[in-house]
Every structure is written in structure tokens, then in C-alpha cells.
Backbone:
């Protein structure tokens, strides 16, 4: 098989920039939606949490169907690129609709919040699944994919840090957080800003026709359902993909505990509520800085080895964080930086490894199933995040956490345990799973040669 020509840095950046747009949406949703539901819409906190759990589970199901549909899509621009142009305006509309405030009781508000968030997440997936699947078409070189994943995470965390810093100030500038109008304006501006990033991806990428035609064509309900069943069989036959799925479920379930508890830790354990707007974006900045490093390590060694090196760093970081009883913000920031430096590796490596399993499919089954792979991956992540939210609520209740009060010593200890012991368990489990991962660069090249005949 002829060696594939390297991708230019400009082409990598053009594709990776799309994740800046996606994280403007995703982080804005995480930052604004829960306070909006409880403080502006007037929804009870328990019902608001239920909206997120049900919407996450729906999101995972919808992703697999969208993957099947986009694999079968045919146009002069390819299978995936059209969605970045034609579906992205729908995403903006859905985002704005999620921040409207109908006049209704708790039941009516719950139904509206749930349906509008399902609409939002479905529109988001309709753009994000084709975007992610493009990484398997832009290059079939395992090392290039590691580099692309590194660039993607740079833009992802840049978008997240920008929104985390700017959105609270934007809400204040438009009149404060108590008015529905401020959220609608913020959502509209967020959506408009994201669109050029999606269009840049469309302009910067191409889909080789031979890869487009490797999947069956023709979108219909019967074909989509058949593809869904076939994809379930594909997952069972794809050993490397199963390992990655298991690792990302464990990683998303465990490591997100640290991120979701960070604001609680800063406010209650450190006693520095004033540092919450600084330390939370700081973790994202560390992610941004370290993402290219892990992509480099994966290219120089292997993605499996890079994951194991990250495991080692995470073990040290989480152990120090839990064992050292400090309230010094500088030392706490150092621990947070070490944790963030390790955790970003799993995101970089997940997105670098996932495209390689597409060629494993082609070798094993004769079909690529590009978008279906990414749809199932998204399902795994959404399932883990939904379970994470439910588990975190149970754990916070178990340790005696009460909002807006001084926490007991036992509660503060429990908070650190949630942030450290659960992720540490996830690190160990993921190390055991990834130890048997054998789809390295050399093995991937062998499969490519055999598939090419």
C-alpha cells in the first residue's frame, strides 16, 4: 500500500477549529442551563436534574441513529460535510429555543424543558457526529490522527475556556441573570459566533470518494434500522473498539467527578469562593496546553503507551491531591494542574484511537461504518455522563452536603474522596483495559495493507 501523504498543518487546523464552535455550545449549555432552569424558568432542582439525565440518555440513542443516517448520505460534497453547513443553523435555533420561558406550572415547564433540550441535543448531534466522523476520512494514517486529535483538543479547550470566562460577564452586560431576555440574547450570540467555525471545517476538508462509497447508500427507515442492527453486530466483532468504549465509559464516569466538584472544592474546602471564576478556567487552560504534548507522545511511542503514561501521572496527581490536607490556593492549583494534565490525555487519545477502529471494521467486516462508530462512541460517553450526574447527586447527599452553608469536616473529606478516590479507581480500571489494546501504528498499517489487497 502506498504511503499516505502528510496532511498540512493548515488542513489540520481547519478541521480542528470546528471543536471551538462545538465547545462554545457545550460549555455554554453546561454553564447556563441549570441556573436558567432553576432561577429563571422556575423549575424545581430535582426536575431540572431529571431533564439532564433523560436528555443525556436520549442523546446517546439519537447519536447511533444519526450515525447510520449520515453514513448513507450522498451529495456532491460527500456524506458528512453538508451537515456542517445545512444543519448548523438548526442548532442555533434549537439553542435559542431552549432558553425561552413559557407560562406554565411545574409539569408544563418540565415538559417544555425536556422537549426543548432533546431538540437541542439532537440538533447538536446532527452536526457533531458527521464532524467527528470526518477524522476517519481526512487521513488514514494513525500518527496523523494523533496529531489531529491534539489540535482538536487545543481548540476544544480554547472554546471552553473562552466561554467559561466570557459568558458570566456577557449575562451581566445584558442586564443580569434574572431576566429571560439576557439568556436568549446570550444564546443567539453564542450560536452566531459558532457558525463560522463549522463553515471553516466544510471549506477545509474533503471526503475521498472511495471512502464515501465504502458504506451503503440510500436513507430510509428500514435501511437505518437495518444499519443499527448491523452496527450492534459490528461493535461485538471489534475488539479494539470495545476496549475503547469501556475505557471512555469509565473515564467519563470517573474523571468528570473531579470537574463537576471543582467549584464546590474551591468554595467550601479552600474557602475561596472568589477564586471559582479563576481556578475553573485555569483547569481548562492546563488542558489546552497539555493536549499537544500527549499527541506528540502518542506519535513517538504508541497510543496505548501514552494512555499508560497518563495513568501513571494521574495516579500520582490524585494521590497527592487526596493525601495532602492543604487549603493553600497555590498548592491546590498545582494539584489541579497535575490532574488536568493527566486527564486531558484520555480525551486526546480517545479521539485519536477511535478512527483507527474504522479500518479495523473494514478489515473484519468489509464495511467501514465511519459515523456509526462515532455515534456509538457518543452514546457511550452520554450514558456515562448521565450516570455520573445521577451518581454525583446521590454521593453529595450521602456525605451530608448542604448548599450555601459551612460544611462539616466529614463532608469536606467526603468531597475530596469523590474528587480523588473514584477517579483513581477509574485510572486503575482503564489501565487494565488498555493494557490489552494491540491496534498500534504498525498493526494499523498491516490491516490497511491487507484491506487494500
Residues:
Amino acid at each position: 500500500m502506498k504511503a499516505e501523504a502528510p496532511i498540512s498543518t493548515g488542513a489540520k487546523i481547519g478541521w480542528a477549529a470546528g471543536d471551538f464552535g462545538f465547545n462554545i455550545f457545550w460549555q455554554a449549555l453546561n454553564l447556563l442551563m441549570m441556573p436558567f432552569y432553576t432561577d429563571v424558568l422556575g423549575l424545581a432542582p430535582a426536575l431540572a436534574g431529571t431533564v439532564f439525565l433523560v436528555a443525556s440518555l436520549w442523546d446517546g440513542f439519537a447519536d447511533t441513529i444519526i450515525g447510520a443516517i449520515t453514513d448513507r448520505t450522498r451529495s456532491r460534497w460527500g456524506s458528512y460535510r453538508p451537515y456542517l453547513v445545512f444543519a448548523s443553523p438548526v442548532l442555533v435555533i434549537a439553542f435559542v429555543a431552549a432558553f425561552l420561558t413559557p407560562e406554565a406550572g411545574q409539569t408544563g415547564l418540565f415538559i417544555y424543558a425536556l422537549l426543548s433540550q432533546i431538540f437541542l441535543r439532537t440538533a447538536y448531534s446532527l452536526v457533531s457526529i458527521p464532524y467527528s466522523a470526518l477524522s476517519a476520512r481526512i487521513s488514514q494514517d494513525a500518527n496523523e490522527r494523533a496529531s489531529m486529535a491534539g489540535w482538536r483538543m487545543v481548540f476544544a479547550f480554547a472554546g471552553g475556556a473562552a466561554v467559561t470566562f466570557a459568558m458570566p460577564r456577557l449575562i451581566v452586560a445584558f442586564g443580569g441573570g434574572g431576566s429571560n431576555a439576557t439568556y436568549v440574547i446570550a444564546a443567539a450570540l453564542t450560536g452566531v459566533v459558532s457558525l463560522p467555525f463549522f463553515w471553516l471545517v466544510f471549506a477545509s476538508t474533503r471526503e475521498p470518494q472511495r471512502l464515501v462509497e465504502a458504506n451503503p447508500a440510500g436513507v430510509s427507515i428500514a435501511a437505518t434500522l437495518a444499519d443499527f442492527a448491523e452496527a450492534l453486530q459490528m461493535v461485538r466483532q471489534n475488539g479494539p473498539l470495545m476496549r475503547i468504549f469501556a475505557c471512555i465509559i469509565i473515564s467519563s464516569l470517573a474523571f468528570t467527578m473531579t470537574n463537576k466538584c471543582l467549584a464546590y472544592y474551591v468554595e467550601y474546602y479552600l474557602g475561596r469562593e472568589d477564586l471559582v471564576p479563576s481556578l475553573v478556567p485555569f483547569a481548562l487552560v492546563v488542558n489546552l496546553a497539555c493536549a499537544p504534548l500527549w499527541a506528540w507522545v502518542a506519535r513517538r511511542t504508541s497510543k496505548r503507551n501514552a494512555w499508560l503514561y497518563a495513568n501513571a501521572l494521574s495516579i500520582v496527581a490524585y494521590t497527592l491531591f487526596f493525601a495532602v490536607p492543604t487549603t493553600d490556593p497555590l498548592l491546590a492549583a498545582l494539584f489541579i494542574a497535575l490532574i488536568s494534565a493527566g486527564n486531558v490525555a484520555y480525551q486526546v487519545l480517545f479521539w485519536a484511537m477511535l478512527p483507527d477502529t474504522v479500518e479495523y471494521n473494514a478489515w473484519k467486516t468489509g464495511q467501514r461504518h465511519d459515523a456509526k462508530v462515532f455515534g456509538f462512541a457518543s452514546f457511550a460517553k452520554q450514558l456515562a455522563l448521565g450516570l455520573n450526574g445521577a451518581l454525583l447527586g446521590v454521593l453529595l447527599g450521602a456525605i451530608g452536603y448542604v448548599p450555601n452553608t459551612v460544611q462539616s469536616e466529614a463532608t469536606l473529606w467526603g468531597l475530596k474522596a469523590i474528587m480523588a478516590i473514584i477517579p483513581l479507581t477509574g485510572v486503575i480500571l482503564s489501565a487494565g483495559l488498555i493494557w490489552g489494546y494491540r491496534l498500534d501504528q504498525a498493526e494499523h498499517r498491516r490491516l490497511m495493507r491487507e484491506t487494500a489487497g
